Amino acid sequence: MKRGLPCRSPPSGQKCIVWFCSVLFCIVGAHGETSHALSVSTPHQHYYCPVGATVKMVCAQKGATLHPKDILRHSWLFTPHSDQHCHEKVGPRHAPILSRSHGNHSLPPGVDYGSGAQNFWVVLQNVTSLDQGRYCCMALDFQVDHKHGTLLQRPHSHVVLHVMPRRNGSKECTVVDSKPPEGSVSVALATAACIMALLSLPLILVLVYKQRQNGQSSRRAHELVRMDSEAQGHENPVFLGGSPQTKTRTVSQIMTRQSSETGRHLLSEPGTPLSPPAHGDVFFPSQDPIPESPDFLQV
Length: 299
Prior knowledge:
4-stranded antiparallel beta sheet; 4 helices; elongated
């Protein structure tokens, strides 16, 4: 009969290591996947212009459309409140919200849309206090199927225009970069992952050490149970219905004389050779007296 071995789950320390590595791979994989998707960012988020200046607000795009035959459009929205979201149907100076690749003949005076390989922009001439506010830029990925367009991606960002009174006759605008520089997000993620790894390493080592100690104690306990079961003649006491009961005998039962299986007297029966006497005689076999020789009697 083969001995059964109880199933053991993986150590908790190994689970922690697997979980930690999975989190790191998820972070890296998510960053790698999103790098190929269409994204929009702003090189400069705040523009400060005097009244009457001309400003060119730029948004940058990365990635590509999901399908090669998709149509890419750019959109600009406006709200006079810099701390609120842009209105969905209001463009700069009430201009159309979608830019056209074949010209912008329907735009109001002083507004112009433009786009390049990696960025797109809106130009406002002769700005006034009415132009101050928040401008939202979006890249729209349309999939056209049977003259019906489906919006697949809509990444967006925003810039804020501040219009100030003119000083010293200057019409130049200044910009302020309040957003982190390019690539800082990935660097921050990598730094955070390294810090988490360093902080979690001692805890993982302690868990692994404790799990090994528990495993050694468990193996010792199973070995003691196995040795004890072999000493009592049981094959596998772990899987028996109940613990085996050993037959105990009292001293009187042990000293009681029993007959052998062949029916012959045991050495403990009275009257057998070399058996102890029944009435307190010395534990030596009794012998008949040897008659003295006449020669010895004469000497």
